[in-house]
Amino acid sequence: MEGLIRGLTDAVLNPNHGRDDDDDDSRDERSRSTWAEVVGGEQEEEDQTNRRPASHNAPRKEINEQREQRQSRRNEWGSGGSRPAATTQEYGETNDDGWETVGRKPPSKKNHKVPKNQWNNYKRPIDEQEYSGDVDYGTGIEPSEEELADIGKALNKLWDLDSNRLVPGKDYEIDCGEGKKVYQKEDMADASLFTWLSEDIFRIPTYSRFCALLDNYNPEQGCKEVVTSEEKQEQKAFIEEISRTAVIKYLHKYLSAKGVISENYEDFKRMLASFWFDLYGRGGTSGSSSAFEHVFVGEIKQRGEQEVSGFHNWIQFYLEEAKGRVNYQGYIFPRRRGNTPDSESHLLTIQFEWNGVLKSVSSTLVGVSPEFEFAIYTLCFYLGQEENHVELGPYPVNIKCYRLGNRIGSAFPVADS
Questions:
Q1: CA 166-295-223 angle, 5° bins
Q2: Which of 5, 118, 277, 298 has its CA 20 to 30 A from that of 76?
Q3: Is the pLDDT of residue 194 over 60?
Q4: What is the CA radius of gyration of the chain?
């Protein structure tokens, strides 16, 4: 009885706990559009290709080998190889090495750095793009009978295949700050969420091409999007890049084995591009949103009090926090004691402001690759349910996937109790 009373009390004081505010938003089909600004510039594709081996996405047996190679490269940067030397410049200044130091709330250890000269080459015509080598993964990406019979096992296999997933403490560091209830408004974080991210991360081809997409959208609700030919090329280039990874090849084999799509890989790539990037309407405004905009970039609702919806990607969070547009305010207390997040956690439930607009509760998988998130949400949409209780590595997760007609209205992970 005492436990019941505590539960009812918490439900009254904290009605949104454990539920992302996208739940109701997706069902209501409210209208908004999206945007993010990524510092752009030019960097030769050859430089990026040389920094990353062509086989950077391999089955599980090669993952540790490739992560060790990344760490070895970082060791050349000095100070034990764990991170580049800390900057001494103040916020808003530009360093001589082509990086801009920006931010509103100072991190506890060093300022964020965002590459200024990185992604403009991806605006070139498709036939002028250079991609990672296409690797033959053999049977490493063939779904087993067990996996075909259980989507949870398939999702966990995707976790194993994500060779581009980052390692906490080696590739990045976060400071979770203090915990809070959803309804609490005070800022419980003294510093930014990200205290450090390896510069090498922006040279991973799938990460770099993903970043190039983030400045293509307007955040305001009801703004009709205009997609330029250059932006379409960026979309196609990103799909082509991720299609060379193990997680996307596994996704194709899984969906084709289930009869959802044809076995033709080119058809599959066209389906992925259309599925994630085609514009649709929310709340009566046609062409104002897309699955990619909502899930990965974020949107600002304008009905009544402004709210942030979507925005579940950690790379977007890092970049916006780096430019002072995101103010991290602390993590949301987990339902179960002993599950408090720390610097090693990949799954976070947090609260933040974006451009001064509150996101009272949001969840994200930190350090996973863009291709991994594309794969799990696509798989859940086609073969899963609205709620998918699974395990991703060590994390019990409920992957929520809401429909908006024949599109993804929203998709995000929630820590399972």
A1: 140
A2: 118
A3: yes
A4: 21
At 5, give phi and psi (nearest 5°). Answer: -60, -45
Most confident stretch, 46-55, 78-87, 161-170, 338-347: 161-170
Output the furthest CA–CA distance in the chain (Å, rounded): 68
* Residue 210 near residue 101 (C-beta atoms within 8 A): no
What integer best gives the mean pLDDT of the chain? 77
- Quote the CA–CA distance of 415 and 417 in Å, as a whole number: 6
Q: What is the per-residue pLDDT across 246-280, written as a single tens digit (0 to 9) for each?
A: 999 999 999 999 999 999 999 999 999 999 999 99
Q: 186 — phi, psi (to 5°)?
A: -70, 150
**Segment among 54-63, 291-300, 333-342, 387-396 with least mean pLDDT:** 54-63
- Return the structure tokens found at 30: 């409210």
Report the 3 state secondary structure along the chain.
CHHHHHHHHHHHHCCCCCCCCHHHHHHHCCCCCECCCCCCCCCCHHHHHHHCCCCCCCCHHHHHHHHHHHHHHHHCCCHHHCCCCCCCCCCCCECCCCEEEECCCCCCCCCEEEECCCCHHHHCCHHHCCCCCCCCCHHHHCCCHHHHHCHHHHHHHHHHHCCCCCCECCCEEECCCCEECCCCCCCCCCCCCEEEECHHHHHCHHHHHHHHHCCCCCCECCCCCCCCHHHHHHHHHHHHHHCCCHHHHHHHHHHHHCCCCCCCHHHHHHHHHHHHHCCEEECCEEEEECHHHHHHHCEEECCCCCEEECCCCHHHHHHHHHCCCEEEEEEECCCCCCCCCCCCCCEEEEEEEECCEEEEEEEEECCCCHHHHHHHHHHHHHHCCCEEEEEECCEEEEEEEEEECCEEEEEEEEECC
User: Model pTM?
Assistant: 0.77
Structure-block tokens of residue 179: 């915990």
Q: How many CB atoms lie within 10 A of CB 106?
A: 14
Compute the residue count for the chain. 417
